[in-house]
Design brief:
The chain is mainly alpha-helical. The protein has one domain. 68% of the residues lie in helices and 0% in strands. The protein has five helices and no strands. Helix 1 packs across helix 4 and helix 3 runs antiparallel to helix 4. It is elongated, with a radius of gyration of 16 Å.
Amino acid sequence: MRQSALIIYYELLSAFSNLRDLYISRIIENKNPNPSQLFFSQEWVKNIAALRDKLSPLEITEVHKLYSRFHTLKFFLESESERANLDAYIIETAEKVFASFFSRRNAQKRFWKYHDISKQKI
């Protein structure tokens, strides 16, 4: 059970980071998707099921929804025919899973502030 919880934790942590990076690369910078692929355990449903005694039904449903959303994002990244839907899905997913105070305008301001600082030579 502990192993399943750790796998879920690190996969979702990675997925949130990847979503942030995709948002920056596609929506803010209008560049090629970065990362270009997403990876998940083939046994993600089994890992969630292993926690059924520790999580409420609502929590299990929410974790399942997150995985489903990230798997759909993975599909859009991998499918050339669905690439046109990628940007809209990145925006939709970011709006659903990130805090509501994390507005697109604030994200862009913060990114450019960080981006400008990171380009400076020390």
